[in-house]
Amino acid sequence: MNTYLAITTIICVYFLLLSLKNKETLKNLTYSPDVSTAPKVSVLIPARDEETNIGECLDSLLEQDYPNYEILVIDDNSNDGTWRIIKKYARKNNKIKAYKGKPLAEGWIGKQYACQQLIESARGEYLMFTDADTIHTSQSISWAVTNMLRHKADFMSAFLHHLIGSLGEALIVPAIYIMTTILMPLWKIPQKNNPFFSFAIGQFMVCRRKCLLAIGGYTSFKNSLVEDISLARAMKEHGYKTIFIDGKDYIHCRMYHSFKGAFKGLVKNTFGALHQSILFLAALFLVVAAVIEIPVLNLIHQCYAGGNDLLFSIIPVSMFGGIWFLVLRDRKISLSITLSYPILFFMVMIIAVTSTLKTGLLGGVEWKGRLVRCGFKHTEQPVLLKPTLTRINGRYLYPLCSAYARFIYWLTFLLVIIYNTLVFRLRIKGRENLKMADDGGFYISNHSLYLDPAIIAQVIAPGRTYFTAMEQTFDMPFVGYYIRLLGAIPVSEALPFSSLIRVSRHIIDRKKFLHFFPEGDLTHLSRNPAPFKHGVFYLAYLLNKPIIPIVINPIPRIVFGKKIYKCFTRVEATICKPVYPHSFKVNGKNSSVIIREIAEHTHQVISEVLKI
Fold it and tell me: Whole-model pTM?
């Protein structure tokens, strides 16, 4: 235990140094308002269901000492009186322009879509995005422009002064400072060479208009759950300078008004902030559990059990408590909240897991009447049977985030190997034949076991293969969802063959493979494979790509001289040599004859292996 406590103490020293360095960075990067020139600023406010906040926000923005600005507010299809309030302010003051948002377009998240509409109407050299629940001092625009000009920056965001009005909020809201306490070195942000070090808070962001238009506005991350970080990263990826500074003296905000609201708000964003990465989630868990929670539990145990390591156990706990004290003091948050940090970080772990499950695996999180879940890029997506089918990193899935999909895929693949080894004692022959067709193609195999898809998954190179399955399988609870996750594609009599051709061509062009069983015909434990229909062979002929036959052969027990298949103890999978359609193309033969010959030849190859 002494070694463990020593390691956690060393890590806490690192967190202390990081926090102090970040505090100094914020101080050094932040300039007081001192504007000598006044380029036009467009203040852009997306508002949805903000009738309790928008008035106070607009009042504060109308009291600015900056001479050259406009205020554009858009009602994002609110369900309350937001639009009525916005129109009232616009009628009284010509500095405010009110817009009624369009219905949410497919593929967009609401805030991004609202901001994109505002961008199209803004005329300022600088665009200042701020939330409807923020309150600004009279110098907030002057301060923002000063820092943009002094740093020659193209994008800026800042920590605001976050107000906390209840115990429930106190147990969650300060979690937003974790990024600068244990994760993000803020001095890396102004450096242009690494987009990974990008950070922003969407409550307040400033962009040069021409730079934002140059990256396409919000279109490239229109479905990101963390549009602020995505925007900061996009700016750096395009070579623009970004900064993150301290705005606590100029803007304040009460993010949430209850424990439930704070919990749901962070669930909505946390997995996106972790780059939708299971590895980042695991790293966060490891750090929080090992460095923060376990030392506290150990100290409690030492106090009650009277252990010999009591004094040594106090060191990491008091050190991290001191770090959190400095962070909250710097952010002007009540220092009484410091002692609750073990509960807060425990809530962080719960929120991270909940966010991963809800926004990644399940249907999403309801937020202001809309369903929020992980967004995806829809480029080069073939049109399949159902509109819910989505491509993520080469897999056709339900709406899942890519990190979770990869995690489940590889976890399943690991379990498959263990299962095949223990249950089937799987032996694979002919792996050298896979190398003969490395530019994509088709696999086909006999269908003789209920679990032979698991065998095929191990036989074929993982991550390069899609499977076909009957469409009705996808309607089964959980099963349909899961096989989509693993890369299955629905086929049926109703599927237009042109769609299957389009999907196959998309897969083959990426040097991947599409696997077919005999059109769904299962002949359990039979050594006589079902006749092949000609769909896959027509695809191979049309795309001029090889077909690789794979033979799944259950090896029977020999009991009293008789072969008993039902209690087989071993499966042998044989990868046969590729069958090339062009070798069947002889002058005078029409395509239907060639396709039939390819099918018969492939069936014969598999049958011969099964008879050996």
Answer: 0.60
